[in-house]
């Protein structure tokens, strides 16, 4: 067994680690036979020196194998799929996509996360529904997939335990933004799901982890290569993330918008992402011969009501009372009979006449985070009712004094500085701006395996 200090020194000096050395490091992390300071030193060495493709692949494999690897019935072969997003503002895609894919014949064991910095977490959104239980055992996941076709759950204790340790230290040592560490973290968890196909929504822009297309493409290519290296048919979408996805930001509000989307009333940008990501998965599983047919199938699953039926069944299978699920899924639902509504709402008015050229999604998300919609540390409680509704669209001509944003808040109330930041998030202009038109089309590139 190689000595950990020797491995740290080797990577610090820019040398490549062997498969055996990477296995020794991951095993020490998993079994707790390594000091936190040594983990931090190794992560910083990787952050500074990087990793070759072979090293990243070995790290991904070893992390995947550090805990339980799920297995599925033989009759599901080729049909088990999942999606991962690098995080955005108002990103509620999973809530619509998972049941739509189940309605198309896929099995979707969607293992999701919580809010991170300004980006919302899928699990936090679902927990705004009374009774929704995101903690399910492997056996329960198998049962739900058998009866419903999809579930959205948190990472189980037995799945990739090495990643939980490494991520906590990465966060504490400012090594989160390392390409090989990001790749290994994401793909090891997806590999442990024993997926047939995986689609990655890698975002770029003001509200994303990566601010430009070049850096996002580099991450997407790394993830796609690593996923396919594990035998998972893996593709990626590069999508624009400057403003918000849809019109709502905040946990309860995003659940409402997702339910409206499942009832056929979804905003165009949200449905573009759902149909594109879903079509890519249907193509990679062989359920459709081309992307256009995949988009049609996903859209039909939504417009027919089949996806809504699956979402209702998923809610009930994950602990939501049947009456609650029925209320939320009814055609003219009074959502706030079930979902928490904020005590206070206030509307922001447009400062003048003009065209809506931009809405700064990052500014909205960061203010909402401070008002309680997100958390600054693990385990911190959040307020599901805090959020914002965008009342105008990019490219829309507006008059002075009309409401453009409805803010939902409780305690704390927004400060004058936060209100100023929200007001400044809206950009109006006198002439039509081509960028505002482009922002309606979020998908920039699609990377699929050969």
Automatic annotation (TrEMBL):
<dbReference type="InterPro" id="IPR036566">
    <property type="entry name" value="PYNP-like_C_sf"/>
</dbReference>
<dbReference type="InterPro" id="IPR036320">
    <property type="entry name" value="Glycosyl_Trfase_fam3_N_dom_sf"/>
</dbReference>
<dbReference type="GO" id="GO:0004645">
    <property type="term" value="F:1,4-alpha-oligoglucan phosphorylase activity"/>
</dbReference>
<comment type="similarity">
    <text>Belongs to the thymidine/pyrimidine-nucleoside phosphorylase family.</text>
</comment>
<dbReference type="GO" id="GO:0006206">
    <property type="term" value="P:pyrimidine nucleobase metabolic process"/>
</dbReference>
<dbReference type="GO" id="GO:0005829">
    <property type="term" value="C:cytosol"/>
</dbReference>
<dbReference type="InterPro" id="IPR035902">
    <property type="entry name" value="Nuc_phospho_transferase"/>
</dbReference>
<dbReference type="Pfam" id="PF02885">
    <property type="entry name" value="Glycos_trans_3N"/>
</dbReference>
<dbReference type="InterPro" id="IPR013102">
    <property type="entry name" value="PYNP_C"/>
</dbReference>
<feature type="domain" description="Pyrimidine nucleoside phosphorylase C-terminal">
    <location>
        <begin position="355"/>
        <end position="429"/>
    </location>
</feature>
<dbReference type="InterPro" id="IPR000312">
    <property type="entry name" value="Glycosyl_Trfase_fam3"/>
</dbReference>
<dbReference type="Pfam" id="PF00591">
    <property type="entry name" value="Glycos_transf_3"/>
</dbReference>
<comment type="pathway">
    <text>Pyrimidine metabolism; dTMP biosynthesis via salvage pathway; dTMP from thymine: step 1/2.</text>
</comment>
<dbReference type="Pfam" id="PF07831">
    <property type="entry name" value="PYNP_C"/>
</dbReference>
<dbReference type="InterPro" id="IPR018090">
    <property type="entry name" value="Pyrmidine_PPas_bac/euk"/>
</dbReference>
<dbReference type="InterPro" id="IPR017459">
    <property type="entry name" value="Glycosyl_Trfase_fam3_N_dom"/>
</dbReference>
<dbReference type="GO" id="GO:0006213">
    <property type="term" value="P:pyrimidine nucleoside metabolic process"/>
</dbReference>
<protein>
    <recommendedName>
        <fullName>Thymidine phosphorylase</fullName>
        <ecNumber>2.4.2.4</ecNumber>
    </recommendedName>
</protein>
<dbReference type="GO" id="GO:0009032">
    <property type="term" value="F:thymidine phosphorylase activity"/>
</dbReference>
<comment type="function">
    <text>Catalyzes the reversible phosphorolysis of thymidine. The produced molecules are then utilized as carbon and energy sources or in the rescue of pyrimidine bases for nucleotide synthesis.</text>
</comment>
<keyword id="KW-0808">Transferase</keyword>
<comment type="subunit">
    <text>Homodimer.</text>
</comment>
<dbReference type="InterPro" id="IPR000053">
    <property type="entry name" value="Thymidine/pyrmidine_PPase"/>
</dbReference>
<keyword id="KW-0328">Glycosyltransferase</keyword>
